[in-house]
Amino acid sequence: MIKLAHAPKKGLHGKISVPGDKSISHRALMFGAIATGVTEIENFLTSDDVLHTMAIFQALGVSIEQTGTHVRVVGKGITNFTAPKTALDMGNSGTSTRLLMGLLSRQPFDMSIIGDSSLSKRPMRRVLTPLEQMGAKINLSTEGTLPGIIQANNQLNGMVYEMPVASAQVKSAILLAGMQAEGETTIIEKLPSRDHTERMLQQFGGKISTKNGMITISKQGVLKGQHVLVPSDISSAAFFIVAGLITPNSEITIEKVGINPTRDGVLKLLKRMGAEIAIAKIPTSGEPLADITVRTQALHGIHITAADIPSAVDELPIIALAATQAVGDTIITGAEELRVKETDRIATVVSELSKLGASIEARPDGMIIHGQTPLATSQDSTVLESFGDHRIAMMNAVAALITKGDVTLVGEEAMRVSYPKFLSDLAKVMQ
Ligand code: S3P
User: Fold this and answer.
1) 9, 190, 344, 419 - which has most CB atoms within 10 Å?
2) In its UniProt record, which GO terms are filed under biological process (predicted)?
């Protein structure tokens, strides 16, 4: 439990570098492990979720050395893993679980998969169903959750699969199985989701085609180790972007942030809310990067609909906080996926922001935020909770910046999942 800081009267100022992208760090380890030769990863995220993926590949016999944010993976090729001696522990990480269910679905040995209590409640049938259709043999609980067993299997077949949910994790699991399957695998996406798997496969020398919302992959030849520069995570940057916009007298720059168009929804939505965001693009051969500068600004409410959700799905909690400071109503619809994240983020956002006086209503598929409400504790002080969810913990810390009264946070350790040093980085822009 910690006491959260208020923003200084002179506002938030300075330049900040947030850690590497979580989605891309997971994938860099995965492709590095299944390639041949050495993969060097720069600006790697050393957070709990990604470290679980790293430990899993080490348990499968892959040599991985980490020195700070630099990681060296000596690839084994996808057919040379060794049987792990213990269960593969996914921790809190949905990305590890779902992507590895696909990637490890054609191995000559059984693997037990386990996760923490939050992960063990999250739906895995969305991955199991298509993988079983391809020939994977995976047992989960009757509820379709962890723990489970990925059984030994030597045959996967391609298929055409129409995605019932917009999910990069489901898409990636199918692609990672499809690259080991006989025949073609085609995925028809409901809405475009983050394309880091497709981009990284190509960087490692693989072949994949994307046309009119259809992604096609065949069995891949040998992938070659690469040098991967991980952009700073736009999902982490989003907390600073919103903090800069809603804290009086502020101006901050977040450096070298990944602005992949399948991930930059937070920038588009905040611009629709009236924010001027300066995006200075940095030339690069990999994932697109930019320095992002924001200053305090008046915002107005908007309607956020299903088509907006995939590229901003992890940023909706912090966008909801921004909406409490916008004039007028912000209506979020088509966001039922929020209910199956690390927590039910419709419930947890509404419960925590309401404690600070926000006028916010939960809907089955989203929320309505009536702005503009000054945030204040009900008595002299309020206790907020993370419920073990890293993004709810960080949303609470940003809310406290502009809250009148003392705010305490229970469960701040959840930030270790994606941004272990968030509070000390936040303190840097308060000096
Ligand atoms: C992720 C995809 C998204 C996102 C998660 C990371 C990924 O999940 O919420 O934090 O790395 O592919 P869904 O695919 O379930 O939308």
Assistant:
1) 419
2) amino acid biosynthetic process; aromatic amino acid family biosynthetic process; chorismate biosynthetic process
Extract the tokens encoding 190.
């409901």
Q: What radius of gyration, in Å, describes the C-alpha atoms of the chain?
A: 21
Q: Quote the pTM value.
A: 0.98
> How many C-beta atoms lie closer than 10 Å to residue 397's C-beta?
23
Give nearest CA residue, ligand 1 atom 16.
167
Q: Domain coordinates of the chain in residue numbers?
A: 2-20+232-428, 22-214
Q: Active-site residues: which are they?
A: 314
Q: Does residue 117 sit in helix, strand or coil? A: coil
Q: Any binding-site annotation on 76?
A: no
**pLDDT exceeds 90 at position 380:** no
Query: Any idea which fold 2-20+232-428 has?
Result: UDP-n-acetylglucosamine1-carboxyvinyl-transferase; Chain (3.65.10)
Ligand 1 geometric centre to CA of 7 (Å): 31
Q: Summarize pLDDT for 109-154 with one digit per residue, the tens.
A: 999 999 999 999 999 999 999 999 999 999 999 999 999 999 999 9
CA of 167, closest atom in ligand 1: 14
Same fold across 2-20+232-428 and 22-214: yes
Omega within 30 of 0 (cis) for the link into 147:
yes
- Taking alpha carbons only, the member of 382, 307, 404, 304 closest to residue 346 is 304
* CATH code of the region 22-214: 3.65.10.10
Reported as a pLDDT band with limits 50, 70 and 90, residue 379 is confident
If one residue of 122, 127, 198, 313 were mutated to test the ligand 1 pocket, choosing by the most ligand atoms within 8 A of its CB, it would be 313
Which residues lie below 8 Å from residue 198, measured CB to CB, with a gap of 6+?
175, 208, 210, 215
Q: Count CB neighbours of 185 within 10 A.
A: 26
